[in-house]
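HUMAN: Mind making up another protein with tokenized structure?

ASSISTANT:
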Amino acid sequence: MHLVSAGVDVTVIRSWLGHVSLDTTNHYARANLETKRKALEQVGVPTTTGHPPSWKRDASLLAWLDTL
């Protein structure tokens, strides 16, 4: 977990531990709140164009979604 928190790629950790599968490594390497916070800080804020997305302008699609 300390390696994940330090930013070490999970594939490097897998190799170092000798795991055959990333699934095994992922079982033990759970992100803590600090790691999650740092990841979110790296994500850019989406830009808005001032226009709704194309799917929201498609009346037939919106009508179909209303039937679900």
User: Anything to note?
Assistant: The two ends are 43 Å apart (CA to CA). The mean pLDDT is 84.
